[in-house]
Amino acid sequence: MTPAEDAPCTAPSHDAATPAALAEENGRLRAENAALQETIAVLLARVAELERRLGLNSSNSGKPPSSDGLHKPRREPRTRSLRERSGKPPGGQKGHKGETLRQVDAPGHTIEHYPEACPACGSALTVAMSTGYGARQVFDLPEPRPLTVTEHHLPVRALRAADAGRFSR
């Protein structure tokens, strides 16, 4: 608006106000009001869009986490388990006999692992220098063998007696 438009309008005196002047001023005010209403609608739409974009972060949009800045978005607390507590401590209970794989006396395969050099000083090592060994056993499941199909044939005899046409097995 120009400064002239900002100046307060003085109401015309009743003597000088003619119906034509009042109708002209009324039309001008209605047009100005319509333009302002249109501007307000555009600005409200822009504010709504900017507020929507301001609320976006990496957890509710396709934005990367680096665009969140120094503030992490608040996350909703995770749902706790609905299971009721038993009152027992977690893990194995006292008095329960555990189960474990025991080492076997005669393993199917034995692999000897000898280092070529001492890890501490780097000098060469030989089998004769060994004073004992530590054993670890690994229990591997065997590979499944391919399926074999066997067909069994049973001889069929034709009876020639009174039961002609019947077969016996």
Detailed description of the structure:
This protein is mainly alpha-helical. The chain has two helices and two strands; from the N terminus they run H-H-E-E. It has helices at 3-6, 19-54, and strands at residues 157-158, 167-168. A hairpin with an 8-residue loop joins strand 1 and strand 2. The longest helix is centred in the N-terminal third of the chain and has 36 residues, at 19-54. The chain is elongated, with a radius of gyration of 48 Å. The mean pLDDT is 81.
What does the secondary structure layout of this molecule look like, with pairings?
Elements: H1 3-6, H2 19-54, E1 157-158, E2 167-168
Antiparallel strand pairs: 1-2
Residue share in helix: 10-25%
**Shape assignment:** elongated
Number of β-strand runs: 2
Low-confidence stretches: none
How many helices? The count is 2
Alpha-carbon distance between the two ends: 114 Å
Strand order of the largest sheet: 1-2
Mean pLDDT: 81
Q: Which range does the strand content fall in?
A: under 5%
Oligomer: single chain
Strand/helix succession: HHEE
What is the structural class?
mainly alpha
Characterize the biggest β-sheet. Answer: 2 strands, antiparallel
